[in-house]
Amino acid sequence: MQITVVGSGYVGLVAASCLAELGHQVVCVDNDDRKIAVLQAGQVPIHEEYLADLLARHGGKNIRFSTSLTDSARNAQAVFIAVGTPQGDEGDADLSYVESVAQELASAVNGFMVIVEKSTVPVFTHDWIRKIMHINGAPADSFEVASNPEFLREGTAVRDFLYPDRIVIGVDSERAAAILREIYRPLTDGSYYERPDHIPERLGAPRPVPLIQTSAKSAELIKHASNAFLAMKISFINAVANICEAVGADVRQVCEGIGSDERIGRRFLNPGIGYGGSCFPKDLSAFSAVAHECGYEFRLLDEVMRINEEQRVRFLRKVKKALWTLRGKKLAVLGLAFKGGTDDIRESPAIALIRMLLKEGCEIRAYDPAAMERAREVLGAERITYADSPYEAANKADALLLLTDWPEFAKLDLRRLRTILAYPIVVDGRNLFDPATMAEHGFQYYSVGRPDVQVPARKAAVDP
Ligand code: UDX
């Protein structure tokens, strides 16, 4: 199939590369010439597992890059829209990029094409795209608008695409359905998985991959409702963690107990400093705005967002509880990305917390395996420096703060940390360590939803 993907951000670039991997001829279009030049030069602008492999495999063959939407869409059977839908002033999604793509596409139709919404958009967006195409002169029988939401998580996006839990196609005609089914056939008939060069499997992925066909409206809602539900799970467990703290219970045990009920499940029940990223915060706000527009006040979502904000403030209080006053304190901060495995800092609770700590007068030495460059752009260099390793960050610090769940942080050498920190105080916003182990190593340890470990803190005996 000839496919155009509009947008070369996380979603667009991953979708384009994976569609090329499935054997389609893909052109990825972006109006940012610098980004396209980088991609044409064979560089990979984002940190995403397997993306570089796919681009090396298909670059210049199954996948090409262009700045001209009209040229690349002319022969396409499907055009995937994966442009940004940032949050507008009222919390609603700003769909102006989607609208300009539709305006431009109207002059590119030549035969029949399916326009596929891949970005997360509010319900009824497909109707608007259709109207915009019409008033810009595209004949009614020359296109269809469909919704094919993505459920990719950053860091595992390639494998999520190629080994999905389900594929949702929201279509209002059999003609559009047939094209989308054909695009995903290598996954639904399993032929992709028989190829010797397939990208390594995602554990637990269903086979055959279920394909759910719905109306376009339902598919648009599936995406918003899925993200809202996951965010709700996180805020729910954060609220439970707060009660655990109040009564001295252990949230890990509570999670095990509730998560082993199959109806609830264990995943997305990790308490911490709250969710962030380019999706959950924006999508919850947009879904709440959509509900309001439809005449329904979805107050549950407002509460999910409130708990999420509060979680950061509670963490700041924990830091104060551990250190008393903050002005002039030297803090080692491990983690800047909104979650482990990515260099993305959009809506990162770690960045929000660092800003709060700087406001309190702290001096920060931060480390993140992938997100330091991006963080430096938004946080600057006043009272914050960036270290080359977690140990360099921790050296002579008054306390160590863990803000992102990078797996390598959980493997840190505790003995070494104990020696190089000025005071053995660790405040863990991601519950990466076992409190008993921290106690054994002589740390004062504060985490989320679990009893504090209070050992008399003495200045490190050994000066490194
Ligand atoms: C999310 C959805 O999972 C994905 O399906 C959708 O397509 C895009 O949005 P992503 O933003 O990449 O993906 O990250 P995800 O792994 O879902 O984590 C989101 C946030 O929730 C992160 O800040 C993470 O740290 C936090 N989180 C996640 C928790 O605090 N606790 C959990 O148990 C799980």
Question: Can you give me a brief rundown of this structure?
Answer:
The protein is of the alpha/beta class. The protein has 19 helices and 14 strands.
Task: Point out poorly predicted stretches.
Answer: none
Annotated CATH topology of the domain at 2-214: Rossmann fold
Based on Cα principal axes, name the global outline: elongated
Distance between the ends = 61 Å
CATH class of the domain at 2-214: Alpha Beta
Strand order of the largest sheet: 3-2-1-4-5-6
Question: Strands, helices and their partners?
Answer:
Elements: E1 2-6, H1 10-21, E2 25-29, H2 33-40, H3 51-58, E3 63-66, H4 69-73, E4 78-81, H5 96-106, E5 113-117, H6 125-135, E6 143-147, H7 157-162, E7 167-170, H8 174-188, H9 191-194, E8 211-214, H10 216-247, H11 251-259, H12 280-293, H13 299-323, E9 330-334, H14 349-359, E10 363-367, H15 372-379, E11 384-386, H16 390-394, E12 399-402, H17 407-410, H18 414-420, E13 425-428, H19 435-440, E14 444-446
Parallel strand pairs: 1-2, 1-4, 2-3, 4-5, 5-6, 7-8, 9-10, 9-12, 10-11, 12-13, 13-14
Helix pairs in contact: 1-3, 5-6, 10-12, 10-13, 12-13, 13-14
Could you explain the architecture of this structure?
By secondary structure, the protein is α/β, with parallel strands linked by helices. Among the domains are: 2-214, NAD(P)-binding Rossmann-like Domain (Rossmann fold), CATH 3.40.50.720; 223-307, Orthogonal Bundle (N-(1-d-carboxylethyl)-l-norvaline Dehydrogenase, domain 2), CATH 1.10.1040.10. 43% of the residues lie in helices and 13% in strands. It has 19 helices and 14 strands. α19 (435-440) links the parallel β13 and β14. α5 runs parallel beside α6 (125-135), α10 (216-247) crosses α12 and α13 packs across α14. It starts with a strand and ends in an 18-residue tail after the last strand. The mean pLDDT is 95. The site of uridine-5'-diphosphate-xylopyranose has 19 residues, from α10.
